[in-house]
Amino acid sequence: MKRVLGISAYLAVKEIWRNRARFLLVSLVIALITLLVLFIAALGEGLGNGNREYISKLDAQLIAYQAKSDFLISASRLDRDRLASIRRVAGVQDVGMLGTANANIILPGGGEPLKAALLGIEPGHVGEPPIVQGRPLSTKLADEVIIDRSTALRSGLQVGDPLRIRVTQGTRDEFYELRVVGISDGQQYALQPSIFVPFFTWEQVRPKSEAEVNSGNDPVGNVILIKVKDPAQAESVSQRISAQVNNIEIATVAAAIQALPGYSAQQSTLNTQGGFTLFIGLLVIGGFFQIQILQKVAQIGVLKAIGTTNTIVAATFVIQISLVTLIGVAIGGLLSFLFSLTFPPTVPIVFNGTTSAIAIAALLLIGPLGGLVSIRYAVRIEPLKALGLSI
Q1: What pLDDT score was predicted for residue 377?
Q2: CB 211 within 8 A of CB 128
Q3: C-beta of residue 60 within 8 angstroms of C-beta of residue 227
């Protein structure tokens, strides 16, 4: 076997070197396919991450929605009475109200306002993001804000800076000034950078209709985030909450992510595009090596006539295809890395290690798979027919 591999490797490398321009062209085509596949994977990861980032990082296992809201956060409305009722259920460790809205951040330099998700949370409770710089929110009524890393990068704001937001309340634009007290890691919500304010401050500054401006009703959030004492018992705690608290429905964090508007369809579309790109790569590689075999039928016939076995012929083509594919994938991977360094934070592209590794492994496999037909054709070539000597 060692001798067979040695001869096969020699023949494969020798031919690649003698026809290096032709094989380099194929490697560059594979590199472009690799670039496309990796960017589709990174785009899918970036868009999905931008949609689910805050929800996926919650220190919670369950989310309570208003009944019949179809697990849509924007369609759900829950009051603080239900918050207190859920807190009393056995097995619940902590709860926190979450309110969602949008606001425009007025940038210091007078540039285009930055659209951001305005999230109202309970300071010190589940839902408040971990701080990487600065400190957490102090009280439920403080004029303070935590910004996520994406907001900090896009706005240039730092801990201690004033943050001015513009919202529409009734028919007028209102301006509020808050103080940045902390910066969290990436916590995007609905593909927007996020700012976190105490819940009662959120109720004061959030966009409102004319009826809400004049109503004076008690604050209402969208959903209630629930942390259970034992995550293994989350299902039973969910059942107890549903039985004891009226007009709510409970979802796990994973189910809540799948229910985010457009999330599942978006990921399915991008995965389908990635699959078709791999299939195109399979056809390109298979077609190229099939043409290669047809062009050197006589040479293969000579090799077989002097005693070269089908095993050596097959191994030669497998090694040749694998080397060309490996070179192409390496070039494509390097180009992807270099291009990724040039993208601004506004572009939703994230190169996830696991996702990229799976894409690269699939790309390395399509070479040998694409060459299976040509290899099968090569080993079936008859020496005498190939040399035109058969009767």
Answers
A1: 65
A2: no
A3: yes
Q: How far apart are CA 124 and CA 136, in angstroms?
A: 8
According to the 3-state scheme, what is the secondary structure of the chain? Answer: CHHHHHHHHHHHHHHHHHCHHHHHHHHHHHHHHHHHHHHHHHHHHHHHHHHHHHHHCCCCCEEEEECCCCCCHHHCCEEHHHHHHHHCCCCEEEEEEEEEEEEEEECCCCCCCEEEEEEEECCCCCCCCCEEEECCCCCCCCCEEEECHHHHHHHCCCCCCEEEEEEEECCEEEEEEEEEEEEECCCCECCECEEEEEHHHHHHHCCECHHHHHHCCCCEECEEEEEECCHHHHHHHHHHHHHHCCCEEEEEHHHHHHCCCCHHHHHHHHHHHHHHHHHHHHHHHHHHHHHHHHHCHHHHHHHHHCCCCHHHHHHHHHHHHHHHHHHHHHHHHHHHHHHHCCCCCCCCCCCCHHHHHHHHHHHHHHHHHHCHHHHHHHHCCCHHHHCCCCC
In the numeric block, which tokens belong to residue 235?
């299902």
**pLDDT (tens digit, 9 = 90+) per residue, 175-225?**
999 999 999 998 999 889 999 999 999 999 999 888 777 776 778 899 999
Is the pLDDT higher at 212 or at 169? 169
Decide: pTM greater than 0.85: no
Percent of the chain with pLDDT over 90: 41
CA pair distance 310, 381, nearest whole angstrom? 9
Could you state, in order of their start, the residue ranges of all structural domains in the chain? Answer: 2-51+264-386, 68-246
Burial 369-386 (b: 16+ CB within 10 A, else e): bbbeebbebbeebebeeb
